Structures are given as C-alpha cells and as structure tokens.
Amino acid sequence: MNNFQIFLFLGILMMLLTILLYKKGWVKPVQPAESDSRPPIFWISITVVVMLGIISLIRWMGW
C-alpha cells in the first residue's frame, strides 16, 4: 500500500468511527464556538496527536 491508500483508508475509518460513536450517543454534534470554553487549538492538538499515533502504528506494523 502506498501513502495515498493508507490516508484514504484512515479517512474512511475515522468517518465510520465518528458516525458509529454519534449513533451510540457518545459524540454530540458540534456546538457553535461561542458556547465552547475550550480553544480550537485544543481540538487541533488532539487531532494531530491521534493522526501521528495512527501513522506511527502503521509504520511499526510494517505496512
């Protein structure tokens, strides 16, 4: 698998995971930014950490 296929697979996986969590009621729809006390950099940093973790896991597994 090349990098494009890996990122495509990860994108589809993230979308399915988000939909699954939303159906179970664990993830609420995103509220407007005024009502959110946490800054956007908080969510950006979490997203970056998760993506780096997945990429390093894939590299470690040897795909």
In brief:
By secondary structure, the chain is mostly helical. The protein has two helices and no strands. The mean pLDDT is 73.
Key features of this structure:
63 residues; mainly alpha
How would you characterize the overall build of this protein?
Keywords: Membrane, Transmembrane, Transmembrane helix. The protein is mostly helical and 63 residues long. It has one domain. 70% of the residues lie in helices and 0% in strands. The model has no long low-confidence stretch (mean pLDDT 73).
Rg from Cα: 14 Å
Strand content: under 5%
What is the distance, rounded to the nearest whole angstrom, between the alpha carbons of the first and last residues? 7 Å
What structural class do the secondary elements suggest?
A: mainly alpha
- Describe the sheet with the most strands: none
Please state the overall shape, judged from the principal axes of the Cα atoms. globular
Regions with pLDDT < 50 over 5+ consecutive residues?
Answer: none
**Average pLDDT, all residues:** 73
Number of separate strands:
0
- Integer tally of domains: 1
Order of helices and strands: HH
Helical proportion?
55-70%
Q: Number of DSSP helices? A: 2
